[in-house]
Fold this sequence. Notes:
Blueprint: E1 2-7, H1 14-24, H2 28-35, E2 43-52, E3 55-64, H3 74-82, H4 88-109, H5 124-140, E4 142-147, E5 150-151, E6 156-159, E7 162-165, H6 169-174, E8 180-181, H7 192-201, E9 202-205, E10 212-221, E11 231-239, H8 241-245, E12 250-258, H9 264-275, E13 280-287, E14 293-301, H10 306-316, E15 323-328, E16 333-341, E17 344-353, E18 356-362, H11 364-374, H12 378-388, H13 390-397
Helix pairs in contact: 1-5, 3-4, 4-5, 4-7, 9-10, 11-12
Amino acid sequence: MSVAYLDCFSGISGNMMVGALLDAGMPMGYLETELKKLPLSSYKLIDKEVTKKGIRARYFNVEVRKWFQPSRNFTDIRNIIEKSTLSDQVKQCSSAIFSKLAAAEAKVHGVPVEKIHFHEVGAVDSIIDIVGTAIGLEYLGIKEIYASALHVGAGYVKCSHGQMPVPAPATAELLSGIPFYAENIKKELVTPTGAAIVATLVKGFGSTPPNFKSRKVCYGAGSRDIEIPNVLRLYLGEKNYAAETGNAGETKIVETNIDDLNPQVYGYVMERLFAAGAHDVYLTSIIMKKNRPGTKITVMVSPEKVNDIVQIMLAETSTLGVRILGCETAHVDVSMINVDTEWGTVKVKVGKLNDRLINVAPEFEDCKTIAARHKIPLKTIHLHVLRNCGPMLDLMAK
């Protein structure tokens, strides 16, 4: 599982986050293509390498022809995201960040969320920063994010309502429960957009998470030159869950034998079990007592979800009891990459063991959808995707 750690010694903003993700390996061309799926115009993307106090970093920003931009409220922004053709994961991530931001603004101004007009953060540049962050996280397969305490800066910042103390009111609201500090730099280092990204996505704060192994160090540059390097440092790597838990592969097996259930019910039961957190559910044909044909339902699940699984099996099937067994499992590290084809984008599951690539599997549903839409044999799509994901896999192997 890919994990990112944000070292926010110089704060965080939306464009710093996107810059760090570009530095981590998201191609600028891919970002531009994905952002074109938003119904936005009159902007220009900036992407270049800069040096901040001797540190090379990736600088990303958005130039906006602001006199062409309408005032937008939360509903407007949500509609822009939802009506786009971005992936569901990107839509959900972007909307969650904006929801967090809208709630903070609404509380500060004492108005309902729907009435919030975003002023600074509702402009095109903030929409692109937030959606660009979601695009980068999906592209790089980052599943968990951790962060240091946030350096917020000090002094005052000019907002649409006038001069405000740093951190700005909405930023201060978003920082509730998040460790932060201020030193003698009289600048706003954490923007509302940056705070919303952190408040929505970061799983834990402090030093790097236990058993984190860094693979790459990336830098996203801020716009200003200040007394310290104005960069967001992003460590990209993995967590060793086996070392963290002592038995990361611990799994429970819950199973039961049934010989009197309507076969139509099994599909529904499996859906409920997966929705409750089952890792795997499968059916096995068996011969029971008195030579009756039966079915064994087997569910693999983490220990903390066993009770939920048992309740479903007892309530939804005709069984009078279940067996709960302990077992250990071993897993490869799995990540997802997107492969663009002439017919559309296909997700590809990549498996690595001890940093060695051992398995590549295009997502069946993506291939099936393209095959049906374009009336192309499924195996043709499958082979085409495998041939075209080579360059991306070569980059991952480095």
